[in-house]
Design goal:
The protein is mainly α. It is built from two helices and no strands. It starts with 30 loop residues before the first helix and ends in a 10-residue tail after the last helix.
Length: 71
């Protein structure tokens, strides 16, 4: 390996997979939701934020609709 690299000569190119990367957002979740996914995280060994993302991806994939009733 070189001890130094000349960054100007490297000719960086855009990541072709950048569109598929996750996007960071801020979201407010109830403490019970966070606790639930943290418990699931301990059982599965998967980070709780990843579990939340996987659940939401499944909702999108299955085109799940939210069902709510107001009392």
């Amino acid at each position: 390996m070189l001890k130094e690299y000349d960054v100007d000569k490297l000719n960086p190119r855009k990541n072709p997979y950048a569109k598929g990367l996750k996007k960071q957002v801020t979201i407010n979740l109830s403490p019970s939701v966070i606790e639930y996914f943290k418990e699931q995280s301990q059982e599965t060994g998967i980070p709780y934020q990843t579990l939340i993302n996987l659940y939401l991806v499944d909702c999108v994939k299955e085109k799940k609709k939210l069902e709510m009733t107001w009392i």
